[in-house]
Every structure is written in structure tokens, then in C-alpha cells.
Amino acid sequence: MDVDPHVIKERLLLFYLKRMLTSLLGYTIIVMEIPVNHWVLNEVRKLRLSTRGRYGLMAMFQLALEYGKGPIPLKNVANEQGLSESYLEQLFSTLRKDGLINSVRGAQGGYMLALEPSEITVGQVLRSLEGDLSPADCVGNDSASDCSKEYGCATKLVLMEIKNSIDQVIDSISLKNMVDEVEKQDKRLGGL
Fold first, then answer.
1. Is residue 98 part of a domain?
2. In degrees to the nearest 10, what's the CA dihedral of 58, 137, 24, 54?
3. Residue 82 carries which DSSP code?
4. Neighbours of 107 (CB within 10 A)
5. Residues paired with 102 in a beta bridge
């Protein structure tokens, strides 16, 4: 049975992130749908990463794998991770503006991490591409809340705990951690 190595890498990456979240939060993460009112449903949807965040993290992971080898052509990153080259151009523009990657022009040009993989966190990458990851506006980093129910709000404490937990987890995982974990998984599976 032929298995696409890109699918395996993506599944290993997602497995690793789920495992890290589970261990840091102290409980198992289960994805399920629960019938809830419209407001809660909208707030929960904000916790889901868009393709910008997922693909950007995959691309940064690839640059971390290639760290120290000089500039990596965008085409190579796209091919290795099974992503659209034109979409990566947009993501890399944002990541470059935020100082997470550098670009080199010319025949031997490409992209490389601006810092060592151990110095770039998942949180930095996701915030660069997704913006604020808070589950609700009232607990966001830019929270100039205009909520009339802010004082005495029963859910604000819960939402703040969710935000703090998410921040703690994504800020504790570096690109190097991701590379190390995937390499361990790769060895366990006998190499890809």
C-alpha cells in the first residue's frame, strides 16, 4: 500500500502538537461537536486554526528541518510539505515582515529561519499568521472590550483560563521541539 509521505509528515506533526497540548494541559484533547447556542459556537470556532496557521507552521517546520543549509527555495518547501507555492509566497511575506524568516534573492536564493529553530515558538508563528488566538474578544491581547456584561460575567474567567492555557502551550513548543519529536517518531516507524 502506497502512503504519501506528505500525509505521514502532516499526521505526525498534528499528532505531536496534540500530544504536547495534552501533556501540558493535563487532560486528553478530544474534538467533538456539541449543540450549543450561536454565541458559544462562534467563540469555539475562533479556536480553530485556519489554513494560514496550519500551512505556515508546516512550512516553518520544513525550514527548521533544513536549518543550517542556507536559503531553501520556496518550491522545495512547497514540494516537501505538499503545499501551494503561490499560497506559501503570501504566508512567507507575512513571516518575513514579522522577522521570523529571511529571504535571499538570486539563483541560489530562497528562505531561511531568521533565528535558530529553538528560538522560534509555535506561538510566534501562529500569532504572525492568525493574529490574536483568544477564544473571545473580551480576553484578547487587544481587549478594549465593549461588552455590556463584562462585569459579573460568568464566562470571562473560563475564557481567560482557556486563553492562558493555549498561550502557555504554543509558547512552550519551539520549532526544534517539533523537529526532534518528528525525528523520534520517524525512527520508531523505521524511517520515511
1. yes
2. -10
3. T
4. 5
5. 112
Q: Is residue 146 part of a domain?
A: no
157-186 as b/e: b if 16+ CB within 10 A: eebbebbeebeebbeebbbbbbbebbeebe
Q: Is residue 192 part of a domain?
A: no
The C-alpha cell of 48 is what?
A: 480553530
The answer to whether 170 and 123 have CB atoms below 8 angstroms apart is: yes
How many separate domains does the chain show?
1
For the chain, give the number of residues.
Answer: 192
Tell me how far the alpha carbon of residue 32 is from its chain's centroid. 20
| Whether 153 contacts 190, CB under 8 Å | no
* Those residues with Cβ within 8 angstroms of residue 116's Cβ, 6 or more apart along the chain or in another chain: 67, 176
Burial class (CB in 10 A: 0-12, 13-18, 19+), 136: buried
Query: Containing domain of residue 70, as a range?
Result: 5-137+151-186
User: Mean pLDDT of residues grouped by 10 in the chain (192 residues)?
Assistant: 58 62 51 38 57 94 96 96 95 97 93 97 95 79 63 77 88 94 83 56
Phi, psi of 93, rounded to the nearest 5 degrees? -60, -45
CATH code for the domain in which residue 38 is found: 1.10.10.10
